[in-house]
């Protein structure tokens, strides 16, 4: 009887073993429809792309170097005294395409090589087909990917500021520009306008004139509330209360101490680097908020509160300003672009299509650089 029972047990085990592959295959086959049923129920990401961790790590190391290499601390207390040197302007170009207007900028720079430096952040995915001209050759900094509606444009501008701080302690002003920007005055006029700011006040500690930054800082603008909650309700609190949240052009000219302030900042950056909600993509313009908000909170009296780059928003499309075309280019247009409601003339203008280069070159000596 025991032998019979033992044989039955062995037969059952062999049956289970022989049927196991079949059962496994059957179970897997029956699971496939369940996968398609469950997949739609897995929620997609609710936010737009953020900044990769590796990019953030690289940037922090760069910003530490810039802070240590700088001649001024974030609040004007020097890490070491600036050596006697002629102040320079650092021209910082953010681009994702060819620097089409480089020939016009070369005419602008010509003869003033001791008074400026050029730095370019070119998106690694961009295809730059035109060979760099003299002033742009070898001036490209290590760059990371950028895209609209993300804090990557803030990071790119901060990298440019850090690179310029490290490169030359004589850099006194830092002008952020795009490949679509052009100068609308001569270099001599531009340089004198920046350094002769009558509103600059002497420092209480050193007695030296504290140069101001030319950055647009606006409050009470339509849609500002939606921009504030673009990352979610109360996400910006407590570091950035709504009554301190500002908007302004992403193109500006910073004084050196403010450039240092930007690369030193960690407190506000941890809020502005957060990605926006996908549902708020039409209100997500971090690069238009971070810089004016930071300076409004840290040194409002040290800013003119207006930009020196003229932009025409009268017929904007998809968040882009009016793009000037060759038929619009004329001497009167240049003079109109200079006109400002502030105490200063505009010094730069955007946005110009690449085929505007030739008509602009024709006006260079007779109008643009003739002040």
From TrEMBL:
It is a single-pass type II membrane protein. Its main location: membrane. Pfam families: Branch. It comes from the Eukaryota. The chain crosses the membrane at residues 21-39. InterPro entries: BC10-like (IPR044174), Glyco_trans_14 (IPR003406). GO terms for molecular function: glycosyltransferase activity. GO terms for cellular component: membrane. Keywords: Glycoprotein, Glycosyltransferase, Membrane, Transferase, Transmembrane, Transmembrane helix. The keyword RNA-binding does not apply. It is found in: Membrane. This is Core-2/I-branching beta-1,6-N-acetylglucosaminyltransferase family protein. It comes from Canna indica.
């Amino acid at each position: 009887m025991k032998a019979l029972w033992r044989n039955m047990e062995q037969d059952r085990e062999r049956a289970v073993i022989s049927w196991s592959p079949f059962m496994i295959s059957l179970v897997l086959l029956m699971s496939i429809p369940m996968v398609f049923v469950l997949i739609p129920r897995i929620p997609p990401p609710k936010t737009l792309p953020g900044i990769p961790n590796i990019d953030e790590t690289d940037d922090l190391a760069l910003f530490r170097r810039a802070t240590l290499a700088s001649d001024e601390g974030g609040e004007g207390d020097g890490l070491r005294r600036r050596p006697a040197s002629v102040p320079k302007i650092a021209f910082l170009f953010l681009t994702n395409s060819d620097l089409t207007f480089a020939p016009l900028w070369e005419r602008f720079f010509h003869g003033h090589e001791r008074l400026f430096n050029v730095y370019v952040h070119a998106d690694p995915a961009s295809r730059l087909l035109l060979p760099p001209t003299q002033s742009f050759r070898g001036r490209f900094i290590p760059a990371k990917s950028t895209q609209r509606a993300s804090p990557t444009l803030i990071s790119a501008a901060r990298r440019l500021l850090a690179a310029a701080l490290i490169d030359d302690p004589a850099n006194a002003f830092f002008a952020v520009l795009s490949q679509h920007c052009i100068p609308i005055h001569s270099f001599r006029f531009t340089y004198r306008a920046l350094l002769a700011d009558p509103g600059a006040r002497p420092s209480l500690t050193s007695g030296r004139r504290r140069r101001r930054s030319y950055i647009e800082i606006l409050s009470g603008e339509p849609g500002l509330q939606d921009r504030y909650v673009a990352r979610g309700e109360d996400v910006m609190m407590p570091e950035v209360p709504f009554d301190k949240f500002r908007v302004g052009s992403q193109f500006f000219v910073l004084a050196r101490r403010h450039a240092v302030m930007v690369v030193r900042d960690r407190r506000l950056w941890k809020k502005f680097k957060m990605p926006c909600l996908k549902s708020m993509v039409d209100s997500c313009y971090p690069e238009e908020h971070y810089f004016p908000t930071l300076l409004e909170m840290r040194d409002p009296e040290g800013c003119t509160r207006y930009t020196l780059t003229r932009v025409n928003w009268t017929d904007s499309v998809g968040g882009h300003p009016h793009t000037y075309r060759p038929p619009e280019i004329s001497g009167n247009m240049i003079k109109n672009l200079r006109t400002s409601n502030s105490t200063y003339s505009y010094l730069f203008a955007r946005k110009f299509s690449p085929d505007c280069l030739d008509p602009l070159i024709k006006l260079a000596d007779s109008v643009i650089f003739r002040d």
